[in-house]
Amino acid sequence: MSRPQEPHRPFLPFGNPFRRMSPKGSYLSPKLLALLNTFEETLQGRIKNLRPVGRDDVLRLSWMRFAMDTLCEIHTDVKALITALELPVSDWDDKWIDVYLDDSVQLLDICIAFSSEISQLKQGHLFLKCVLRNFGDTPAKQLERARSSADGWKQHIAKKNPRFDNCFSAMDVLAEKLDLPKIKNSAKGRILMQAMYGVKVVSLLVCSIFAAAFSGSTKKLLNLQVPETFSWAAAFSELQAFVNTEIRSLHSNGRTTILKELEAVDTDVKKLYPIVQEEGNTVEAQALENSISDLGKSAEKLSDGLDLLAKDVDKFFQIVLKGRDALLGNLRISGNASNGVHRVNIKVGSPMVR
InterPro entries of this UniProt entry (predicted)? Predict the structure, then answer.
């Protein structure tokens, strides 16, 4: 899972993405302004809650689950805002539709990559189970098989997941298109794009953190600059700085597996490995028993955490997919569907497709 360290390349969008979004004479009615303020206040609160309590909570599966749940809530919030705006799809500008569909397809690709990585980590759990079960055999055989299983786990975890190339590419596309299209004479459109910008920025930050956790690399850990005019900008900057600083610190200290539960398993495997390298008659029984117990606990904690995270990633995938499908369905009904409508091809049988 480890990769050679690469120089950090921060993403710094140029200019204010909303400088071109506010045409002269645009006016937000009290009702529209209230909708926008409510959405951004809620977004600010969700971002503040995302900040880990302490450094040790960064890149724990429990925090990653909470981050994914928060993304689900934020994307649900923007759907509620779209409904409250009473802006029919027939009134959507083609550029707005392109933004929504482009963003959604990138998020779906990222979710598929995350799901694939979780599955790969869970497959590694089979090697750990073999390590633990082999100690019910005769001493000589149990040590030989345990060594083989431990070696298998190391090799499996070190494997590069080819789906992560798609994940990194999708993140690049999202980062490059943070500058939103110009809004002409549409107060509702302005609110829609401003809200979608916030959703996109938070989604991109969380995805970059997940990518760092799964890949063991800070290659795609982003530094996103949000204009200070947004009420949630300070909370976002604080969250980003806190988490990114801790991740880079872990990486600079030589940690090849910066996902906390995975690191715990790796540590226990390393403790057990020298013991099973000894000949059967020289193995110290108590040390072996303690190591087996520690590995069993850390392996189970990793497996349970991955199961729960997989469900949260799938939930987020379904929210994005259903929102996309609803938009495309409305476009067809209104007769606005065109040859330029973006499609996403998802293989039947994918664990993320219901």
Answer: BPS1_pln
